[in-house]
Amino acid sequence: MVRLISQNSSWLLQASAEIRSDKEIVLMAVRRDPFILRCVGAELRDDYDVVLAAMRKHRDAFRYAGPSLRDQEEDLVRMCDAKVILSLHACASTEALTTVKATTMGGSEVVSVSLAPRDSASALVLALQSDLPPCSQAADFVLPSGRLLSDVLDTATVAEALGA
Question: Does the chain have fewer CB atoms within 10 Å around its N or its C terminus?
Fold first, then answer.
């Protein structure tokens, strides 16, 4: 069934409730057909990542978002508009460093930098921009919270900005 869903999201309509509630399978399906969001488990219609993946394909998929995300439409739209999204990964080798990966909307890694969690958010921007390819220099950086990195530059550390 998973193979069928990976080829044609409409197979999710015939899948068991267990499969329709599997986040990885649902993410795969909504990336192909964002409106399939209407038939996934209620918990995943309230899942920020699932709804965002659907909205990246088509903004109108938000109408199938669960009630807990209704007041977050503006944040979700901002994340859809971003060119680069940051995700946090702690280095396995040391707890003193935080590795931040900037990925494109399609999930391809553009740059990865490591900083101390107590470094300022401004230091994060400088590190990212110094390693970005020239075509990405004007990227918008969106934090996992949905806020723009530029919104917290003067007030947050790397750990605070990324919610770590």
Answer: N
d(CA 71, CA 146): 12
Closest to 82 measured CA to CA, from 138, 27, 134, 162: 138
Q: Are the CB atoms for 57 and 34 separated by under 8 Å?
A: yes
DSSP conformational letter for 17: H
CA distances from 92 to 96, 98, 128 (A): 10, 10, 20
Question: pTM, whole model, 2 decimals?
Answer: 0.57
Q: pLDDT tens digit string along 30-68?
A: 988 999 999 998 999 999 889 988 998 899 999 999 999
Q: Quote the strand ranges of 36-142, DSSP E.
A: 84-90, 98-104, 109-115, 141-142
94: its two tokens: 């040391």
Residue 90 CA to residue 97 CA, distance in Å, equals 7
Q: Which residue has the tokens 């909504």?
A: 30
Total residue count of the chain as it appears in this document: 164
